[in-house]
Amino acid sequence: MHTCRNCNQSFQTELALELHRDTCKNGELFCQLCGDRFRERDATQDGWHYDCPNEDCEGEGLKEDLYHVDDVRTATH
Ligand SMILES: [Zn+2]
Ligand SMILES: [Zn+2]
C-alpha cells in the first residue's frame, strides 16, 4: 500500500500514487532541494516567509527554493 503523505489517501500501486501526487490538492508547494511536496500552510506561518517543513532540509523562500506546483508544471511544458 502506498500512502500520500499530504492527504493520507492510500493507493494500490506506486504509479497510482505518482499520478495522484500530481493532482493532490494538499501538495501545493514543491521544494527544489529535497523534492518534497507539502501544503502551503505547512511551509509558512504568515504567508510571507516560507520554509521547507522538512527538518533536515534548508529550503526556504517562495520562488527561491519553494515553488507552487502549478508554476513548475506550466514552466516545464
Ligand atoms: Zn494526496
Ligand atoms: Zn525541502
Share in helix: 25-40%
Total beta strand runs: 5
What are the segments in which pLDDT stays under 50 over at least 5 consecutive residues?
none
Structural class: alpha+beta
- Oligomerization state of this entry? single chain
Largest sheet: 3 strands, antiparallel
The separation of the N and C termini measures: 31 Å
Shape type: globular
Q: How many domains, as an integer?
A: 1
The kinds of small molecule bound in this structure are: zinc ion
Question: What portion of residues belong to β-strands?
Answer: 15-25%
**What Rg is obtained from the alpha carbons, in whole angstroms?**
13 Å
Number of helices: 3
Run of helices and strands: EEHEEHEH
Arithmetic mean of pLDDT = 88
Order of strands, main sheet, comes to: 4-3-5
Keywords:
single chain, 77 residues, alpha+beta, 3-stranded antiparallel sheet, two-stranded antiparallel sheet, 3 helices, globular, binds zinc ion
